[in-house]
From TrEMBL:
Native organism: Nocardioides faecalis
ABC transporter domain ranges (all copies): 10-242
Boundaries of every Mop domain copy: 296-357
GO annotation, biological process: molybdate ion transport
Protein name: ABC transporter ATP-binding protein
PANTHER family attached to this UniProt entry: SPERMIDINE/PUTRESCINE IMPORT ATP-BINDING PROTEIN POTA, SPERMIDINE_PUTRESCINE IMPORT ATP-BINDING PROTEIN POTA
Keywords from the UniProt entry: ATP-binding, Molybdenum, Nucleotide-binding, Transport
SUPFAM superfamilies the UniProt entry points to: MOP-like, P-loop containing nucleoside triphosphate hydrolases
Highest taxon, organism lineage: Bacteria
Length: 358
């Protein structure tokens, strides 16, 4: 659990998760400090939605426990119903009540916990104002744009005064113009609120999350401060999210050796891993030179690969081959005659390759 935090440093743990869901082969353990936002990232099928469903009380795990601010929500023959957990779930779609105006949608949470009509209205208007949507108070959901509806949904979630906020890809259904505004809004209202955010977008993690937990195949494979994980990823998904190449294997005295025997030379980042220990090598696609034929001079890192895809990205093209990526100019694509299926050589200098313990 959060191994980068020294044991002798007191921590205010807001959320403790250690659960297993057998039929989905998910075993997840992590903690979130009070007031922090943690981003759950990983490929499709990694277990992110399952974890969120367990936290929300929509799915009972087979073993383990969930504690929120010390209160046991799941575990030891205890299971607290979703409505009694003090959690709020904001999904990809706003899911507003279509027959209620925006103000009444937001007031629903306070009213359901016993607030008077006047009290609930005041809370609703305060949160609508907080998310810059007070002018929408009298509109019904059908009269709102996607971005407006999601802002009202944020207000509704926060008006319930949750101790834990769960966000499931809140920007996924928005168009490119609405997403940045909602991202800025969340960055403002999530301050000092314990939050778990599921996202596939690197900007969501960078701008909203204090920490990142990376899931692959139902297991936590990496976690830590957001900037550290994305700058020095130790899992393939985090590397891809950050736009980096990652080669996993075992440490050698001057690099990493893959299971297939291919050796990649590099420089240790921080304390060098012991020879034979699990390690990863990370390097930027822009640091890779692409050659139609193996170059002379015996470069230390020359990898023969077959082109799998050519992806135009503005003023350059990303060449994907052998599970790696290289960025080349448009002119280079023509000059090298690059095409899917062509055999090429990727060359990267050893001083561009950072080696990390895994």
């Amino acid at each position: 659990m959060t191994p980068d935090v020294p044991r002798d440093v007191p921590r205010d743990v807001g959320l403790h998760v250690d659960v297993r869901v057998a039929d989905r082969d998910v075993e997840v353990a992590f903690e979130v400090d009070t007031g922090q936002t943690v981003a759950l990232i990983g490929p499709n099928g990694a277990g992110k939605s399952t974890t969120l469903a367990v936290l929300a009380g929509l799915l009972r795990p087979d073993a383990g426990e969930v504690r929120l601010e010390g209160r046991l929500l799941t575990g030891d023959r205890t299971w607290v119903a979703p409505h009694a957990r003090r959690t709020a779930l904001l999904a990809q779609e706003p899911l507003l009540f279509p027959h209620l105006r925006a103000r009444d949608n937001v007031a629903f949470g306070p009213r359901s916990t016993g607030a008077s009509r006047a009290e609930a209205r005041a809370v609703a208007e305060r949160w609508l104002s907080e998310v810059d949507a007070l002018a929408l108070a009298d509109r019904r959901p059908a009269q709102l744009s996607g971005g407006q509806a999601q802002r009202v949904a944020v207000a509704r979630a926060l008006a319930a005064d949750p101790r834990l906020l769960l966000l499931d890809e809140p920007m996924a259904a928005l168009d490119v113009d609405a997403a940045p505004a909602l991202r800025r809004l969340l960055g403002r209202v999530l301050a000092e609120r314990t939050t778990v955010l599921v996202t596939h977008h690197v900007l969501d993690a960078l701008l909203l999350a204090d920490r990142v937990v990376v899931l692959e195949a139902g297991r936590v494979v990496e976690q830590g401060p957001t900037a550290d994980v994305l700058a020095r990823p130790r899992s393939r998904f985090a590397a891809q999210l950050a736009g980096l190449n990652l080669v996993a294997g075992t440490a050698t005295p001057d690099g990493v050796r893959r299971p297939d025997g291919l050796a990649l030379h590099g420089t240790a980042a921080g304390d060098p891993p012991a020879a034979g220990a699990p390690a990863v090598a990370v390097f930027r696609p822009a640091a890779v030179a692409v050659h139609a034929r193996p170059p002379g001079g015996s470069p230390r890192n020359a990898l023969t690969v077959r082109v799998e895809a050519l992806e135009p990205q503005g003023d350059h093209v990303r060449v994907r081959a052998g599970g790696l990526a290289a960025d080349v100019t448009l002119a280079a694509v023509a000059e090298l005659g690059l095409a899917v299926g062509a055999e090429v050589t990727f060359v990267v200098k050893a001083n561009e390759v950072a080696v990390h313990a895994r």
